[in-house]
Design goal:
The complex is a heterodimer.
Chain A lengths: L1 H24 L3 H13 L3 H20 L9 E9 L6 H18 L25 E7 L5 E8 L1 H4 L3 E5 L4 H16 L7 E9 L1 H12 L10 H14 L15 E11 L4 E8 L6 E5 L5 E4 L3
Parallel strand pairs in A: 1-2, 5-6
Antiparallel strand pairs in A: 1-3, 3-8, 4-7, 5-7, 8-9
Chain B lengths: L2 E6 L3 H5 L6 E11 L1 H9 L12 E4 L3 E6 L2 E6 L12 H8 L3 E4 L8 H7 L2 E4 L5 H6 L1 E8 L8 E16 L6 H18 L2
The chains are: A alpha+beta, B alpha/beta.
Chain lengths: 298, 194
């Protein structure tokens, strides 16, 4: 069985190498549509100039098959592992690590990963605990889904956490999200996707916020209460006037996505994770026999 | 809001003729600079081996391919967030005669006064638009401090670099300041509806 395991590890590594570069070059259709809609709504002159430039930039990346943005980010993967998938997560991690490194060397991609204290570059977009991988395990299934989200630092630097108290209520959550996005101004490359994580614990709220930005643009949380809050915040955020690249305008965010978890009766955590307009993501489904299907829209 | 074409290095008069909101395209030479480059100059006191007088500084850490000793070809050249580097604005104008700083996301209000005093502007570029930016760079002519890769000092020759928006002019106007002030007023109304 070791031959099978080696082959499937290679299949996952190849998929990761492809996903990382593909995500950086070819942004999903839902995002392209959201940017077009934003351009149609925008009335400020600098805002229109920014959105026209973004649309032109995406077209150039398509024509020349080049990177949309120079920030190749920190490689983040979301894995859904079927209980019967024939490769252990320890080896899946190894494959994602090797695939990220190989893509960086072969393309070549700018290497961003540094030791957090010495700031010395640690290699080819890999290092200690990098890439960052999130896991979900699925019973009664033998497949693997991998989503690659190269996360740029301009938007990641605009991440915020507040431990609201229960008495702050939902109004406290809304206020913190609004304050965060106004405070971020043009720094995270607006208009982008505001990811909000509510509930759970401090760390889990931020994890949920990051999961929210990785969803297809404009999808709604299945919980109707949460979906309603997504709609409301989306509207409120676009009334702040921050505008494209913070130069003022009608479109400050392309979307607001929220993920939630139940929490302790004394907790009311809210986390904000921003994703820039270049909201890159690409996915692959790997079957138990090593067959790989790529899906840009997942 | 005018559409302007400016060649760099540029003189003070040209820079003072710009107004916040103007759209600008740039020809000539621009210098790439980033956090570590400026920490070396100002915190470690190392003189930069390039002439900054009249210069256009771009906040960048380019993705490049090495094609020979000290010679690089662009792979993907884009722009980083400027706000991190605001404290260097004053000495860049006062000690080195820099005329323009270009990056994304704006500079905080502490940049307004030095820009007015020394005759400098901040150009806001579209962050993330590296595919376009890379096509506007004709050549990487020089690189210094390669050991800081990719945060070296870079000299690029550019053609029609832009569109850039004058975000802070040399007369004390900052679009970023104005947008923040307006947003804070709107927030008061929005809070009332929560």
């Amino acid at each position: 069985m070791s031959t099978v395991a080696t082959d499937i590890q290679k299949a996952v590594e190849d998929a990761a190498a492809h996903l990382y570069v593909w995500a950086l070059k070819d942004i999903p259709q839902d995002l392209r549509d959201a940017i077009r809609d934003a351009r149609e709504r925008e009335t400020s002159v600098p805002g229109q100039r920014v959105l026209d430039t973004i649309i032109r930039n995406v077209a150039i990346a398509d024509d020349r098959t080049t990177l949309v943005c120079q920030d190749t980010g920190i490689a983040v993967y979301y894995c859904r592992v079927g209980e019967h998938f024939p490769l252990h997560p320890a080896r899946i991690y190894e494959a994602l690590y090797d695939g990220t490194e190989r893509a960086t060397v072969e393309h070549p991609l700018r290497s961003n990963t540094v030791h957090t204290l010495t700031r010395e570059n640690t290699g080819q977009n890999v290092g200690y605990r990098v890439p960052i991988v999130h896991w979900d395990f699925v019973p009664d299934w033998d497949g693997l889904d991998v989503k690659c989200v190269p996360k740029g630092s301009g938007s990641e630097n605009m991440s915020f956490l507040k431990m609201c108290v229960p008495a702050d209520g939902v109004a406290g959550i809304k206020r913190f999200v609004l304050d965060s996005i106004v405070n971020a101004g043009g720094k995270p490359c607006p208009p982008g996707i505001v990811g909000v994580g509510i509930g759970g614990s401090a760390d889990y709220a931020m994890h949920l916020a990051k999961e929210a930005i990785a969803r297809p643009v404009g999808t709604r949380n299945p919980d109707p209460e949460v979906a309603k809050l997504e709609e409301e915040l989306y509207g409120l955020l676009n009334e702040t006037g921050i505008g494209p690249m913070g130069l003022g305008g009608d479109v400050t965010v392309l979307q607001c996505h929220i993920e939630h978890a139940d929490t302790h009766m004394t907790l009311n955590p809210v986390a904000v994770n921003y994703q820039c307009w270049a909201a890159r993501r690409a996915s692959a489904h790997i079957a138990a026999d090593g067959t790989v299907d790529f899906d840009r829209e997942a | 809001m005018a559409d302007r074409k400016i060649t760099f290095p540029a003189d003070e008069e040209t820079i003072r003729s710009l107004r916040a909101g103007d759209s600008v395209h740039v020809d000539g030479h621009i210098i790439g600079i980033r956090d570590r480059t400026q920490i070396r100059i100002f915190d470690q006191g190392v003189e930069p081996p390039m002439d900054f007088s009249g210069a256009f500084l771009l906040h960048t850490a380019p993705g490049v391919r090495k094609i020979g000793p000290g010679k690089y070809a662009p792979v993907s050249i884009g722009t980083t967030t400027s706000a991190r580097m605001v404290r260097f604005t004053e000495p860049l104008g006062r000690d080195y005669g820099v005329r323009a700083i270009c990056g994304k996301g704006g500079l905080p209000d502490e940049a307004i006064e030095p820009m007015k005093r020394y005759g400098m502007v901040y150009f806001a570029i579209v962050g993330g638009a590296a595919a376009l930016e890379t096509t506007q760079i004709e050549e990487i002519e020089e690189v210094a401090w390669e050991e800081l890769m990719p945060e070296c000092l870079w000299k690029f020759r550019v053609k029609d670099f832009g569109p850039l928006t004058v975000g802070i002019d040399a007369h004390g106007t900052s679009l970023f300041h104005d947008v923040q002030e307006a947003a804070k007023k709107r927030l008061e109304d929005l809070y009332a509806r929560l």
